[in-house]
Specification:
With 505 residues, this protein is of the alpha/beta class. It contains 14 helices and 19 strands.
């Protein structure tokens, strides 16, 4: 009989969550570096360079890879011969570990979990509760798998109950373009097939914990139907040309994971869950001898890559911009922003539009200003702000026309593509939308030299800040003519990949 102490599980969960907040899995880093080396799209190559530089900075500085430090998911495989020592139940132990990790004073992690999800949506303040899955297995150990999943990639999860004769490959290839770039590719796809509806979703989430090994599979060949699907989907998803951050390129996925389970004769449940460029997970074992130890990776495992702007970069002063001065910007070009930049996300946009509808005066003047869709991590030590990468811009689409037509706003900065309605509003108002790289939050924060809350302090990380930025790197994603790089880039690279495949044949 093995005795597992309460404190050992609490400490293990807390240590694991801190660990994965700033250390990418080494297999992921090597896969991104390999994709970077072979990439031919300059925009995608630049995005991956920022991801790799950001990752190394976080590993060295012990600060979060992404400002969205995720919702915690824990898988526990509990041996039948285990006995627990402590006053808490196991769920409470896990949540205490989460609480300690997210409130660690040396590396504060952003609390993103809201209670009463369809009501008050009040922040729990410590990122609890976690989503916990238990399995009772033979043995006398406890295996603990810890992941922290960003909301942007989780929002792109897909599920369907296919007919038994329907093609899994066709369904996946239909769904991936619908996901857009809000899940921050390049990353992984977890696919669960079979069982029941909830089992398929669980399979898709759990298989994302596996290491990236698609090239080993390619070398030895498939030995099962699930492995055949992995190889076929890896090739065909990348042939879509979506590329890093949706900008178009050779690599959209670094690996495709497939896990299946027996199912009813009338059903074929399928779930697909992406993991983003801030993939975070680790594993430890408790065997009764004390707390688990997590071994930090060697910094030599990170490639020596420097992200540098090219000669064609456009440097702009946000404090001097006018509606006329942005008309010459074109989709796809790189811009470095300096000056004062406002921030705001879902909750702030909702408050603003409600105030406008009620004829109330706004607390901030948006005339000729840009707004950055971000919810930053709290600062530590001498930081002016913690990691401050972009959030998914499509969530603000329904507010975009009102903001542009009624506030004097001329530009927005966010992550990934905009929807048709937002693009129409941008074109009609002759505004622009700029894209920052998701998964490079610490790198972005280094461009921020000052930060202060200027409105809605009660919203916490969703308050409106005013940042002072110096040479913050962005890409023009939608210009004032309504041209979107997220439409043109993937279309261009899909054609290039198709032509290359024909030439090879």
């Amino acid at each position: 009989m093995t005795v597992i102490r309460q404190q050992d599980l609490i400490q293990g969960v807390a240590d694991a969550l801190q660990f994965i907040s700033y250390y990418h899995p080494v297999d992921f880093i090597k896969a991104v570096d390999e994709a970077y080396q072979r990439e031919e799209s300059q925009a995608a190559k630049d995005a991956m360079a920022q991801i790799l530089v950001n990752s190394r900075m976080c590993a060295m500085g012990h600060r979060p890879i992404c400002q969205d430090t995720g919702i915690v998911t824990v898988f526990l495989k509990v041996g039948m011969n285990v006995q627990w020592q402590g006053e808490m139940n196991v769920t409470d132990m896990v949540n205490e570990g989460v609480r300690q990790a997210y409130m660690h004073p040396d590396n504060i992690l952003r609390a993103s979990i809201l209670d009463d999800p369809d009501g008050a949506r009040k922040n729990t303040s410590d990122n609890t509760p976690a989503v916990i899955h238990y399995e009772i297995v033979a043995g006398d150990n406890v295996e603990v798998y810890v992941a922290a999943k960003g909301g942007g990639s989780e929002a792109k999860a897909k599920f369907a109950m296919l007919n038994p004769s329907d093609s899994v490959v066709e369904w996946v290839l239909e769904q991936v373009p619908k996901m857009g770039a809000g899940w921050c590719p390049p990353g992984m796809l977890g696919i669960g097939i079979g069982g029941t509806a909830e089992k398929a979703m669980l399979l898709a989430k759990e298989v994302l914990l596996d290491p990236i090994d698609i090239h080993e599979l390619e070398a030895r060949g498939a030995e099962s139907r699930s492995e055949e699907l992995r190889l076929e989907l890896m090739k065909k998803v990348n042939a879509l040309g979506i590329g890093a951050q949706g900008l178009g390129g050779l690599t959209t996925v670094l690996d495709v994971k497939v896990k299946d389970y027996p199912t009813h004769a009338a059903n074929k449940a399928i779930a697909m869950i992406p993991n983003c460029a801030a993939t975070r997970h680790t594993h430890f074992t408790l065997d009764g001898t004390g707390p688990a130890e997590l071994t930090p990776p060697n910094l030599d495992d990170w490639p020596d890559i420097a992200w540098e702007v090219g000669d064609s970069v456009r440097r702009v002063n946000l404090d001097e911009l006018t509606a006329e001065s942005i008309q010459e910007w074109r989709s796809g070009e790189t811009v470095l922003l300096s000056g004062k930049l406002l921030t705001g996300r879902d909750a702030a946009h909702k408050k603003i539009t409600d105030m406008l509808a009620n004829g109330e005066s706004l607390p901030v003047d948006f005339t000729n200003r840009f707004i950055y869709y971000v919810g930053p991590v709290d600062p530590v030590d001498d930081e002016v702000v913690g990691p401050a990468g972009p959030t998914t811009a499509t969530r603000m689409d329904k507010f975009t026309r009102t903001m542009l037509e009624q506030t004097g706003l001329i530009g927005m900065v966010g992550k990934a593509e905009r929807g048709d309605a937002a693009i129409d509003a941008i074109r009609d108002s002759k505004a622009v939308y700029l894209m920052a790289v998701g998964g490079a939050a610490y790198l972005v924060s280094k461009a921020i030299t000052a930060a202060k809350v200027v409105a809605f302090p009660e919203l916490g990380m969703e308050a409106i800040y005013e940042f002072e930025v110096v040479d913050m790197p962005v890409t023009v994603a939608v210009d004032s003519e309504g041209d979107s790089v997220h439409r043109s880039g993937p279309a261009q690279w899909q054609a290039i990949i198709e032509k290359h495949a024909v030439d090879v044949v």
